Amino acid sequence: MPEPVNQLSASSDAQAPLGTDGVTANVATNGLPTSDVPAGALMQTVDGMVASDGTVISDGTVALDPETGLPVDGAITGDGSLVPDVISNLPVFDLVDRAGVVGWVLAALALIGLLIFFYKLVGFIRCGIFTDGFVKDVERHLGDGNEQQAVQVLVRRRHPAARIGLFGMSLSVGDAETRESASDIIAARARKEIDGLNGGLRIMSAIAVLSPLLGLLGTVMGMIEAFQKMEGAGSRIDPSVLSGGIWLALLTTAIGLVVAIPATAFHMWMQGVIGRAAAVMEDVCTMVVNRGELARKTALHGATIAELRQAAE
């Protein structure tokens, strides 16, 4: 089976500009570097193995640039195949560490976002915000004029709308003026409940907005650093320095997007849950304030308001 063609040297005695400092490295016929290889040079031998500082690295191992610490791009293994993707083989913490200060800031934002999400999720479950079927029972009891039964239904529930309903049931709603005053009082109480549910959402929103911007900032800083290294190298430019700096710079943008996308999804979902809870509170507030009128209409028509709505549809 023919040997794979080396991308960096066409023959065993060819000169290949493989040194990181721009000095040409000679390759012997046996694939090992000759004595004139400069210290710190990275080169590829004829048999596809990678040598660094005159030491042959085993097949499949990625050689690192002594200046940047980054893998040599396009390294070929002995069987002619590309070495495994370095990024996918690195642990998450190593990737974050390679991204520098911006990477750790984004990791901290991700942790804060997760804590807020689980805190809000536990709070939603504890307050029974996902169970709002009791509203129909309250409407039926108030329509029948049985306020005591409606109160018992509200007492058994932990939903914010149940607390609003109990508060409204304690207010007098005899005439139109009293009902208007009670409606304002209940609405103010409902706004406090909604403000409590919204706690933490602004932080989640800020994380969703700032994460990609921080990632972009890290990318710009990384690109500036890569081009500064190229400028310092002068005519002895090693493409691996630039390419290594670019992928390292783009890493912060990737981390920023990984943080921002779930944060945005969590924020939108929580807003939807709170919006539904606010609508339920509004319905309960309306029923409680107009409970006398609701009972009168039900007695007049001999049917509950829910039944009248179904008939109208």
TrEMBL record:
Record keywords, A-Z: Cell membrane, Cell projection, Cilium, Flagellum, Membrane, Protein transport, Transmembrane, Transmembrane helix, Transport
Signal peptide as annotated in the record: none
MotA/TolQ/ExbB proton channel domain segment(s): 173-282
Membrane topology annotation: Multi-pass membrane protein
A Gene Ontology biological process term: protein import
Gene Ontology cellular component annotations, sorted alphabetically: plasma membrane
Protein name as it appears in the record: Flagellar motor protein MotA
Species the sequence originates in: Thalassospira alkalitolerans
